[in-house]
C-alpha cells in the first residue's frame, strides 16, 4: 500500500472539499457520519455552506453514534444505501466524525465495488492524530476490536481545528495522550515540548495546539510511510497500548467506559516502567511522565487481585504472535522504540506494582 495520502490543514473545510471534488471528479458523493456529528457539525456548519456549489447534491448517511455500532451488520446497511443510490467505483465517500466513523466509513468504501475513494475529515483530536491517518479501516467483531478490516488510505485527510473548539476537556486530553506517545517515539525535544504545553487550559487555543498537532501527525505519517502494513516499524505506534488495552478491557468488565486516550496514558506509564526496568530509560523520564499523567488523567484503580485478569487480556492481545508470551513496544531512549519486546508475567506484575506506587494506589 503506497503512502500517497494528502494531509491538508485548513480552516475552510467546505472550500477544501470543493477543490478536492474538482480534482477527483466523482460520479456521486456521499457524506458518512454519525448522528452526533450530523447534528453538531455537518447539519449546521457544512451542509448550508455547500449550497450552490459542486457538492450541493451530495448524499448523507448517518449512523447511530458509538463504538457498539461499529459492526459488519451496520456496514451492510451502508452498502445497501450505496447500492440503492447507484454508487459506482468512481464515487466518493467523505467520512466526517471521530475514529468510529473514519474506520467504518473507510472500510465500507474500501470494499464496495472493490474500492471507492474516500476522504477523512476528523472532528476529534484523537481521530486527527491517529485513526484518520495511515489507512487502517475496519469494524469490531464478536467482542474484538477492529477484527475485520483492510488497509486502504484515504485520498486526503482534512484537519481543521474549527471542530475542536467545542470538544469537552476529557475528549481533548484523550487525543493528547496519543500526541504524548508520538512525541516519545520522536525525540526528547518533542517529549519536552508536549509536556511543557498549556493544552489543559480551559479555552482551546489554536496557537498552542496547531503546531503540536502538525508535529504529531508528521510523526505518525513518517512511521506509516516506512511500514504501511505493520510488518515492523509501525508496531512502534503500539507504545502504551498493550497495558492500555488491558485497562480498557478490565474497565469494560466493570461496566465502565474509559476514554481510549486515558487508557493509553496509563499504558505509557507501564511501558516506561518496563523500559526503565531494563535500564533503557532514566528515572527522570518516568517521574515526569507519571506526574503529568497523574495530574491530568487521574488514575485507573487496580489491585494485585486484578493482575491475573490483566495478564490474560495482554496474552490475548492481537498484537501478540502467540498467547504464550506478551510483546510490548518499549523505548531504548526517547525517539528509539524497540518493537516486539518479550516480557514475562513476572516483569509485568513488577511493573504494575511500580505503576500502583507511582499513582499512590
Ligand atoms: N493506531 C496505530 C496505527 O495506526 O498503527
Task: Kindly describe this structure.
The chain is an alpha/beta fold. The chain has 2 domains: 6-163, Rossmann fold; 181-205 and 228-358, Dehydroquinate synthase-like - alpha domain (Dehydroquinate synthase-like, alpha domain, Up-down Bundle), CATH 1.20.1090. It has 13 helices and 10 strands. It has helices at 13-24, 35-50, 72-84, 99-111, 125-131, 169-186, 188-195, 206-226, 241-253, 260-277, 283-297, 307-315, 345-358; strands spanning 6-9, 29-34, 59-63, 92-97, 117-122, 136-141, 144-151, 156-159, 326-331, 337-343. It has a 6-stranded parallel β-sheet with strand order 1-8-5-4-2-3, sandwiched between helices. A hairpin with a 2-residue loop joins strand 6 and strand 7. The longest helix has 21 residues, at 206-226. The model has no long low-confidence stretch (mean pLDDT 95). Bound molecules: glycine.
Average pLDDT: 95
Q: Radius of gyration over alpha carbons?
A: 20 Å
User: Widest sheet: strand order?
Assistant: 1-8-5-4-2-3
Query: What oligomeric state best describes the polypeptide chains here?
Result: single chain
Bulk shape: globular
Query: How helix-rich are the residues, as a percent range?
Result: 40-55%
CATH architecture of the largest domain: 3-Layer(aba) Sandwich
Q: What gap, in angstroms, lies between the N and C termini?
A: 45 Å
Amino acid at each position: 500500500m503506497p503512502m500517497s495520502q494528502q494531509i491538508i490543514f485548513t480552516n475552510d473545510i467546505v472550500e477544501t472539499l470543493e477543490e478536492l471534488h474538482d480534482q477527483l471528479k466523482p460520479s456521486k458523493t456521499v457524506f458518512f457520519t454519525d448522528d452526533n456529528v450530523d447534528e453538531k457539525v455537518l447539519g449546521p456548519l457544512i451542509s448550508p455552506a455547500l449550497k450552490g456549489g459542486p457538492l450541493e447534491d451530495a448524499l448523507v448517511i448517518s449512523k447511530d453514534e458509538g463504538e457498539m455500532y461499529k459492526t459488519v451488520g451496520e456496514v451492510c446497511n451502508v452498502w445497501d444505501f450505496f447500492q440503492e443510490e447507484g454508487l459506482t467505483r468512481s464515487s466518493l465517500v467523505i467520512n466526517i466524525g471521530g475514529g468510529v466513523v473514519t474506520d467504518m466509513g473507510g472500510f465500507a468504501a474500501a470494499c464496495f465495488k472493490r474500492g471507492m475513494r474516500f476522504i477523512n475529515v476528523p472532528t476529534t483530536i484523537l481521530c486527527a492524530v491517529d485513526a484518520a491517518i495511515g489507512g487502517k479501516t475496519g469494524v469490531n467483531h464478536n467482542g474484538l476490536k477492529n477484527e475485520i478490516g483492510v488497509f486502504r488510505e484515504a485520498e486526503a485527510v482534512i484537519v481543521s481545528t474549527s471542530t475542536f473548539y467545542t470538544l469537552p476537556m476529557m475528549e481533548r486530553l484523550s487525543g493528547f495522550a496519543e500526541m504524548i506517545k508520538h512525541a516519545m517515539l520522536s525525540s526528547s525535544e518533542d517529549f519536552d515540548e508536549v509536556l511543557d504545553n498549556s493544552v489543559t487550559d480551559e479555552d482551546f487555543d489554536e496557537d498552542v495546539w496547531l503546531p503540536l498537532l502538525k508535529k504529531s501527525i508528521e510523526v505518525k505519517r513518517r512511521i506509516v510511510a516506512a511500514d504501511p502494513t505493520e510488518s515492523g516499524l509501525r508496531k512502534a505506534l503500539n507504545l502504551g497500548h498493550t497495558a492500555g488495552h488491558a485497562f480498557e478491557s478490565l474497565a469494560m468488565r466493570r461496566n465502565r467506559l474509559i476514554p481510549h486516550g486515558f487508557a493509553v496514558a496509563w499504558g505509557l506509564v507501564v511501558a516506561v516502567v518496563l523500559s526503565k526496568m531494563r535500564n533503557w530509560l532514566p528515572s527522570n523520564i518516568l517521574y515526569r511522565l507519571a506526574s503529568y499523567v497523574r495530574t491530568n488523567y487521574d488514575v485507573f484503580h487496580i489491585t494485585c487481585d486484578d493482575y491475573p485478569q490483566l495478564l490474560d487480556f495482554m496474552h490475548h492481545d492481537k498484537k501478540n504472535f502467540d498467547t504464550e508470551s506478551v510483546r510490548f513496544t518499549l523505548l531504548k531512549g526517547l525517539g528509539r522504540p524497540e518493537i516486539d519486546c518479550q516480557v514475562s508475567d513476572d516483569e509485568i506484575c513488577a511493573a504494575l506494582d511500580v505503576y500502583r506506587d507511582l499513582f499512590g494506589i
